[in-house]
């Protein structure tokens, strides 16, 4: 029996970065695992809101907004309508396209 880890394609504009996000993994963690820098202050704890994205396509493939994320979106003064999400809370179940400036490959040191 073959064992396959399910992944979902998330496209990031305007950089054109394509990320394979695993089932149950949040977008921020996937970007880190794959070697990308994603704007953050809190390091993925859901408190800084620096990681927020605009969902352009695939809102139906996004996880529901949890209470911590709702708080963060409201603090950004954005409507909680599924179009603004925190990358460190966002899980996906299918292809999604987001806009986030500042996502780029980490420089090797
Ligand atoms: S990384 Fe800080 S809120 Fe998402």
UniProtKB/TrEMBL annotation:
One of its GO terms (molecular function) is iron-sulfur cluster binding. Residues 8-109 form the 2Fe-2S ferredoxin-type domain. PROSITE patterns: 2FE2S_FER_2. Coiled coil: none annotated. Pfam families: Fer2. This is 2Fe-2S ferredoxin-type domain-containing protein. It comes from Streptomyces flaveus.
